[in-house]
Amino acid sequence: MTENIGISKTIKVFYMHHQDGMNRLSPVLLLDGGRIWHVGVKNRIGRNRMYYLFYDIDTYIKLWRDTKGHLLYFIDNYHGDLFFDEEPDVFAIDVALSYLKWDDEAIYYGDGKKIEFSVPVLGVIRKLNPWATRPLVYLLFQMFAYESPITESSPLAPADAESTSQDPERDPGQNPSQG
Q1: Cβ contacts of residue 137 below 8 Å, gap of 6+?
Q2: What is the pLDDT of residues 129-168, one digit of tens each?
Q3: Per-residue pLDDT tens for 63-74?
Q4: CA dihedral over 67, 177, 173, 75, signed as positive or negative
Q5: Which of 48, 56, 70, 169 sits between 20 and 30 A of 144, alpha carbons compared?
Q6: Which has the closest alpha carbon to 146: 138, 154, 156?
Q7: How far is 94 from 118, CA to CA, in rounded Å?
Q8: Domain, as residue range, for 130
Q9: Is residue 2 one of the residues assigned to a domain?
Q10: pLDDT tens profile 79-114
Q11: Contact assessment for residue 101 and residue 115, using Cβ atoms and an 8 Å cutoff
């Protein structure tokens, strides 16, 4: 994609085999036209959030940032039921996506801004399920354009109301009861 790039941010990407329990997830529904994408968000105290995007009935990609701001991801299957004791947050992503452009390696937005990934994570998901690139772009954009990563000098978790945006349209993991 040829763009006039003004500000570019390159994110190191690592595939990490990291199985963990599907416990303590908060439900999020991403509405994209007539399609509903199911996401689980794990708010971890003192650490960055994890996002579980289910792109098939039993297949998901888990995304999270390490303390250096790198993107870590893991793809796996989950067989079983997930129960939540809270109401899902709901976000219409089709409007937000109309302001973004992307290819397999980067997301372009604003006045020549670009979030580039060292590994084409968007291309990986596009090969597995082309429709799932849309909610993935939305989540990655939220993670790297709006959320501040946890660093060793920052003791606050992104789930803390002081360190995250209070605009739920800009932060899919923000639980309104935390505000």
Answers
A1: 97, 100, 102, 107, 122
A2: 999 999 999 999 999 988 765 444 333 223 333 333 333 3
A3: 999 989 999 999
A4: positive
A5: 56
A6: 138
A7: 26
A8: 7-163
A9: no
A10: 877 787 889 999 999 989 999 999 999 999 988 999
A11: no
CA distances from 65 to 32, 109, 179 (A): 24, 21, 22
**pLDDT tens for each residue of 132-143:** 999 999 999 999
DSSP letter string over 62-92?
A: EEEE-TTS-EEEEEEE--S----SSPPEEEE
Number of folded domains that form the chain: 1
CA atoms within 13 A on the CB side of 140: 35
Number of alpha helices (DSSP H) and beta strands (DSSP E) in the chain: 3, 11
| Crossing angle of the two packed helices 121-128 and 133-141, in degrees rounded to 10 | 150
**DSSP 3-state of 145:** helix
Q: Which amino acid is at 127?
A: K
| Residue where the block lists tokens 């992104």 | 158
Cα 7 to its chain centre, rounded Å, is 21
Residue 122 DSSP SS3: helix
170 Cβ contact list (under 8 Å, min separation 6): 142, 146
Q: Identify whether 40 is part of a domain.
A: yes
**Contact present, 122 and 102 (Cβ < 8 Å):** yes
- The answer as to whether 122 is a domain residue is yes
